């Protein structure tokens, strides 16, 4: 930083720049005569990239020299990284997010430092030059890539960067995002409820990989059954009120629940006189509008 005019204390004010390669004894000096100068460039074609130098700056005027600043270490210009990151791994977190991790390049960077990493991500049917780019800072060796398309194949590659530019790219790795969240509300199906004498009822539905949630009023607790079949039998006492819900799930997460199917309690004595089995059926266009007719059930 330049010295304010009120502190120059005389005419003929200027700066003395002293510098030497780190670890050497002798100082090289140059004079910068302008009091407004704020930089000095030392040119040497044989200077290796990213070479450390000790530097101090003094002042002078017509009356003589002043004191020097504290010594600081500066570096000559660096070159971009010369090696690619290694051990690149990617895993799908959801239908829209993946996580990618890597290890730093094998060799030490003698010609420059690594300031961070650039992750490139592109879909299989896209061109690599149009890849999404995410930059990390410092020693971070993992990051999340978001806003991706569900159930799609992506390629990811990583390269290091610094002030000189980016280094070579790692080999690309592949990852497929998870399937998007499913929805019961858009899946047509048929639902049947069958009451059985063995103190059980069967809920039959035409959708695969759905969990069946049920709870009863007295204990206000919830149980879950997951099945990939098209029917499930629940062995439950008849003297309780039940609420049944159907909800699909996949790698992308749970879908929307159906509307509640309410099963009122039926006395054991009444059930014993109902015959072998009776069923009431309701064919629906979507699970979101499931209704079980209580008038039909009263025929038991």
From TrEMBL:
<dbReference type="InterPro" id="IPR036116">
    <property type="entry name" value="FN3_sf"/>
</dbReference>
<dbReference type="GO" id="GO:0098632">
    <property type="term" value="F:cell-cell adhesion mediator activity"/>
</dbReference>
<keyword id="KW-0130">Cell adhesion</keyword>
<protein>
    <submittedName>
        <fullName>CNTN4 protein</fullName>
    </submittedName>
</protein>
<feature type="domain" description="Fibronectin type-III">
    <location>
        <begin position="84"/>
        <end position="180"/>
    </location>
</feature>
<keyword id="KW-1003">Cell membrane</keyword>
<feature type="domain" description="Fibronectin type-III">
    <location>
        <begin position="1"/>
        <end position="79"/>
    </location>
</feature>
<keyword id="KW-0472">Membrane</keyword>
<keyword id="KW-0677">Repeat</keyword>
<dbReference type="GO" id="GO:0007420">
    <property type="term" value="P:brain development"/>
</dbReference>
<dbReference type="GO" id="GO:0007411">
    <property type="term" value="P:axon guidance"/>
</dbReference>
<dbReference type="Pfam" id="PF00041">
    <property type="entry name" value="fn3"/>
</dbReference>
<dbReference type="GO" id="GO:0005886">
    <property type="term" value="C:plasma membrane"/>
</dbReference>
<keyword id="KW-0449">Lipoprotein</keyword>
<keyword id="KW-0325">Glycoprotein</keyword>
<dbReference type="GO" id="GO:0030424">
    <property type="term" value="C:axon"/>
</dbReference>
<keyword id="KW-1015">Disulfide bond</keyword>
<dbReference type="InterPro" id="IPR013783">
    <property type="entry name" value="Ig-like_fold"/>
</dbReference>
<dbReference type="InterPro" id="IPR003961">
    <property type="entry name" value="FN3_dom"/>
</dbReference>
<keyword id="KW-0732">Signal</keyword>
